[in-house]
Amino acid sequence: MVDIAEIERRILAGEEISYEDYQVIRAEQERLNDLEEILSGARAGVDAEKEIVARASGPAVAIVVGHTKNSPGASGGAPIHKSEYPWNKGLAAMVHQACMAQGIQSKIFFRDGIGIAGAYKQVAKWGASCVMELHFNSYNGAAHGTETLYDEDRNAGSKAWAQRLQDAMLEALGLYDRGLKERDKGDRGYGSVSALDIPSALTEPFFGDNPSDAHVGEANKQELADALARAAAAQLMPSS
Q1: Cα(27)–Cα(32) distance, integer angstroms
Q2: What whole-number percentage of the chain has pLDDT above 70?
Q3: What is the pTM of this model?
Q4: For the segment 17-51, what is each residue's pLDDT rounded down to a tens digit?
Q5: In the prediction, which pLDDT does 49 show?
Q6: 132: Cβ–Cβ under 8 A, 6 or more apart, which residues?
Q7: H helices of the chain, where?
């Protein structure tokens, strides 16, 4: 991986950087934002360990909303006009409703005040069978398409789960297939997809700063929610 100091040097020199280099910047930014979120939560008395979360009674999917109110992530252009956190907070509610309609247990989790580690402690305490974390992408206003992040080292089932989610998003949105992206330590999203030994994935259905992608994402938000719920149903009830 390219050192972030080298990326900084090139930016300050007016050089172009790649999508991969931009992801290094976003990974470092998310790491620092997460630490700040945990500190702010500690000052406010928020403690993930003290949260009372009733356990799931059977196969269940956890829906984690990416980013936080204080650090809402990438900005989506028209017609979204929202950052990742508020847009995906709404999507999470839609996925949860779609899961309930299919008889799938689901619960929404947030990183506010407790960071990534705290949110995934709650997911584990609830007893989830699999977890999806909701995001959308950004880069230079021209990059486009759908991708899903995962880490197979922690749980061998994560790649198959990520592929289910990727296929579902492609079906719902019809955007360019950017494929699955396996994460290593230090990569953006690694902290989320490697947190638990259950099938885990981070969804990036579209690029919010690309006008065409943003339009497709906003226009098909319910279809996206329904597709993610169907993927959860296929994962949790494969014989149904």
Answers
A1: 9
A2: 98
A3: 0.95
A4: 999 999 999 999 999 999 999 999 999 999 888 77
A5: 80
A6: 61, 62, 63, 64, 95, 165, 201, 202, 203, 228, 232
A7: 4-12, 19-43, 84-101, 115-126, 158-173, 190-193, 211-219, 221-236
Question: How many whole angstroms separate alpha carbon 37 and alpha carbon 31?
Answer: 10
| 1 confidence band (pLDDT: 50, 70, 90) | low
* Residue 177 parent element (H or E): strand 177-182
DSSP string, 44-113: TT--GGG---PPPSSSEEEEEEPS-SSS--SBP-TTT-SBHHHHHHHHHHHHHHHHHHTT-EEEEEE-TT
The residues, ordered by sequence, that sit 6+ positions from 214 with a Cβ below 8 Å of its Cβ are 76, 77, 78, 79, 80, 206, 207, 208
CB 130 within 8 A of CB 163: no
Q: Over the stretch 64-93, which tens digit does the pLDDT of each residue have? A: 999 999 999 999 999 999 999 999 999 999
The dihedrals phi and psi of 158, each to the nearest 5 degrees, come to -70, -35
Classify burial at 103, counting beta carbons within 10 Å of its beta carbon; exposed 0-12, middle 13-18, buried 19 or more. exposed
Identity of the amino acid at 143: A
DSSP assignment letter at 137: B
